[in-house]
Write a structure and sequence with these properties.
By secondary structure, the protein is of the alpha+beta class. It is about 25% helix and about 25% strand.
Length: about 180
């Protein structure tokens, strides 16, 4: 009970520049950049700071728009791939939330850098090529790291940055000859 009150007090306080000293339990991986965690007796939505992964369709939101942002694919398949990587990284695990300047976004989600041990999930998704850098002021604490990791992933063709050979469409086949008339 005291731990829950401590966590609630930390969330209500102005955003510190250091990590919250406690860990939280991941209860659901929504997609490549959003999770739900058990925090102070309730479930909180957490949006990863500084990165963006392709969206996946959710029944209550409809189908996300398919768009290209540079060479990074934003399709439902790309979103599902990012979700699977995020699930492998943090699914069901204890994680540590590190906050930057803003604590919540316009949708009420907590904004955090999410750590599993010594691995920051935000950075790992970018390093593997399943998320891209998305800088939203004023939260820039790890931006330089994300930019470097994205450049490396893109150069190496990792994850969704990999190039695929062009699709060649064969010419239409000629119809078979018709049989001679009788």
């Amino acid at each position: 009970m005291l731990a829950g009150a401590l966590v609630a007090a930390l969330l209500a306080a102005p955003a510190p520049h250091a990590a919250v000293p406690s860990t939280v339990q991941v209860v659901h991986v929504v997609d490549g950049d959003t999770i739900h965690v058990q925090l102070g007796g309730r479930v909180e939505r957490v949006r990863y700071i500084g990165v963006n992964a392709a969206e996946i369709p959710h029944a209550h939101h409809g189908t996300p728009p398919q768009r290209a942002h540079g060479y990074f694919p934003h399709t439902a398949a790309a979103g599902e791939a990012a979700r699977r990587i995020n699930l492998d990284l943090v699914g069901g695990r204890q994680v540590r939330l590190e906050f930057d300047r803003r604590r919540r976004d316009e949708h009420g989600r907590l904004l955090a850098y999410v750590w599993v041990g010594d691995v920051m999930a935000n950075a790992e998704l970018v390093r593997r090529g399943y998320a891209e850098v998305m800088s939203v002021p004023p939260d820039f604490k790890h931006r330089d790291l994300f930019v470097r990791l994205q450049a490396e992933a893109r150069e190496a063709g990792r994850g969704l940055w990999q190039s695929s050979p062009p699709v060649r469409v064969p010419p239409p086949r000629k119809p078979p000859p018709s049989p001679p008339p009788r």
